[in-house]
Amino acid sequence: DDGSRLWLKYDLLADVQQRDTYLKSTQFVAANSSHPTIKVAVQELEMGLKGLLGKAPVLVQTATKSGGIILNVAPNSPSTLPQDGFELFSEKGNIVISSKSEAGVLYGAFELLRYLQTGKSLTNLSVKSSPKIKLRMLNHWDNANGTVERGYAGSSMWKWTELPFRIDPRYITYARANASLGINATSINNVNASSRFLTEEYLEKIKAVADVLRPYGIKVFISVNFRSPRTLGGLKTSDPLDPEVRKWWNEKTKEIHRYIPDFGGYLVKANSEGEPGPQDYGRTHADGANMLAEAMRPFSGIVIWRAFVYNADPKGDRFKEGYAQFKPLDGIFDPKVIVQVKNGPIDFMPREPFHPMFGAFPKTTLGMEFQITQEYLGQSTHLTYLAPMFKECLDTDTYVKGKGTTVAKIVDGSAENHPLSLMAGVANTGSDANWCGHPFNQSNWYAFGRLAWDYTLSSEQIATEWTRMTLTQKPQSVQKITDIMLNSHPIYVSYTYPLGTSHMMGEGHHYGPEPWLTKAARPDWTSIYYHRADSIGLGFDRTGKVSNALQLYSPEVQQLWGNAEKCPLDYLLWFHHVPWTQKLSTGRSLWDELCHRYYDGVGQVGKLQSAWESVKSDVDKETFEDVKGRLKIQEKEALWWRDACVLYFGEFSKLPIPKPLVPPTRTLDDVKKLTEIYHLR
Ligand code: BDP
Predict the structure, then answer these.
(1) Of 9, 262, 443, 477, which has the most beta carbons under 10 Å away?
(2) Which active-site residues does the annotation give?
């Protein structure tokens, strides 16, 4: 199994009895619509049922008997479910999949298949499901030249040189996989955007992609370069208040709609990490976003404007910058604008407190941006299941409208009554046969999609589902693999960034540890900017004494995190500079606790390895060996992280590795050399 079929394998179910039971209620599929989306729903059921049960259903227009599946698009149904929602219920001996929209029926078809794939009963079905978030979106960071920014699974899945003439069959697999989760939007290119994507040449290519994705209910977005009016249009400026510039965007937007009538809209990274933007002309983010929203006014599309901005101020605190730049603009953005905010205030670190913008912008629609690609989370070599991390953020209480105003309630629009809502995930797809590099990285695409649909699903349920659909049906092994997945993120955090440390990765490529990084192109790209290790202790004091970033949160959150004695240890060094000898709630000193966590993390990787070994007979051989090999790399690199960090911080604490832990056998110089290798030209 090369993993190319993702979680839609549809291999014959081993249990004959179970197959017979399923066959009795899936003998035919009745669909009274020839809408392209219904066609793909029927196709999927046909393929899925044939694979899982060994027998394809008969396709009919109307059901004349019982024992089959009825697809029912009911735009005028009195159901209270939203457009995309669906019902799946048993009626007169048939299974009915009903929705106001074709896409909803497609989602219901995938849900039904998931029932079979995960061994659930089909009797007395009574499911109502609807998405909590309206726009459930992947953000590809794919470049026109085929490379992928922060991609760890080969090159781009989009074959720009072949398009629009050759349609890679993988686009369809991609569309099916997304639709199976309810993902309904994708932006196809890197946020560090090339204007090339707005040329006629590329619009034709993007149109071809949009045509493939449309039947699966997926809208296409384009990341745009703010300087395009100059680079493409030959204008002298890209100033958003310049009438010629506005005209250029109006025309360009119309042109795009001639290719893609249901174009999703623009995604913009502006005035961030060297990208152009309205501030180049003394204008604000709102000036830029609203100009694009105006161009989009005649159409259904929207503008997604990223809040990932920070200036290189060595005395400042990057934590506060997105908030500071956007706060004065709350209430000024056009209703067609969504401001897309990363889950945390820095940059996709393995554990971050939620971004303080969530809850502090009542008049602006804020979208969530998670990173599925594991730039800082082990890339393609560490097994790290991210649902618990996504959920930790979504479930955190902002308290802005009283207890229970979780980040999720801000993002779904319910706390502040916003009609739009967005959850975006930076995609981890590539040209690798298995799409995502590490076989388990597929589970993060899966988990992201499931949570964007319904963030109340548990990490465990999602892990179990994915495992059953992807790796094995054997209950014991399903349980073991689920446990591996659930433990994996805490383990990763232990041997990389325990106790709320952050941003100590190798410079530029972000692989492996480099806590000693002191000089970089910008002070806020070093490691010392973040960990602030000195002879006294470790951590970034964000209380009133120093940066006071804590003040950006509601009083309740400040209380929770603002007191070093009470702050949960997972967040401790995000907010406090703690003395090495300070006793923590665990009874250990900071230094001892830090060492124990690094050592424990490494030890736990050993446990992951033996747990994986124990499922050997129940998973595909190729996948088994693949994961086994990667776990060995993970073990080696966990040690690398541990030794780098305890040896380096030991230079500040001047304390020995606490017994019974055994000090590393190599020196700090040895580990530094390992890191240097990655910088060799
Ligand atoms: C950082 C990545 C960089 C991205 C940036 C972003 O290192 O490649 O361009 O995020 O989100 O984490 O724009």
Answers:
(1) 443
(2) 273, 347, 375
Please report, to the nearest 10 degrees, the dihedral formed by the alpha carbons of residues 10, 183, 36, 119 taken in order: 30
By most ligand atoms within 8 Å of CB, the mutation choice from 140, 147, 192, 321 for ligand 1 is: 192
Q: Which CATH class is domain 135-470?
A: alpha beta
The string of pLDDT tens digits covering residues 486-538 is 999 999 999 999 999 999 999 999 999 999 999 999 999 999 999 999 999 99
pLDDT score, position 678 = 86
Q: List pLDDT tens digits, range 185-230.
A: 999 999 999 999 999 999 999 999 999 999 999 999 999 999 999 9
* Separation of alpha carbons 375 and 510, rounded Å: 7
CB 512 within 8 Å of CB 495: no
Of the chain, the end-to-end C-alpha distance in Å amounts to: 36
Taking the domain 16-129, which CATH number applies? 3.30.379.10
Sign of the CA dihedral running 601, 318, 357, 292: negative
Q: Whose CA is nearest to atom 9 of ligand 1?
A: 192
Report pLDDT for 428: 98
Domain boundaries defined on the chain: 16-129, 135-470, 493-540+577-677
Ligand 1 shell residues, CB under 6 Å = 149-150, 191-192, 269, 273, 308, 347-348, 375
Would you say residue 314 has pLDDT above 90?
Answer: no
Residue 418's closest CA among 338, 325, 531?
Answer: 338
Q: Evaluate whether 16-129 and 135-470 have a shared fold.
A: no
**Cβ contact 645:515 at 8 Å:** yes
Amino acid letter, 629:
G
Find, among 114, 71, 69, the residue nearest to 94 by Cα: 69
**Is 493-540+577-677 a CATH 3.90.1330.10 domain?**
yes
Helix (H, G, I), strand (E, B) or coil at 669: helix
Rounded distance between C-alpha atoms, residue 320 and residue 310, angstroms? 9
DSSP H helical ranges for 54-141: 102-117
Closest protein CA for atom 1 of ligand 1: 347
pLDDT in the model for residue 612: 98
Tell me which residue of 163, 195, 205 sits closest to 266, measured CA to CA: 195
Mean pLDDT of the chain: 97
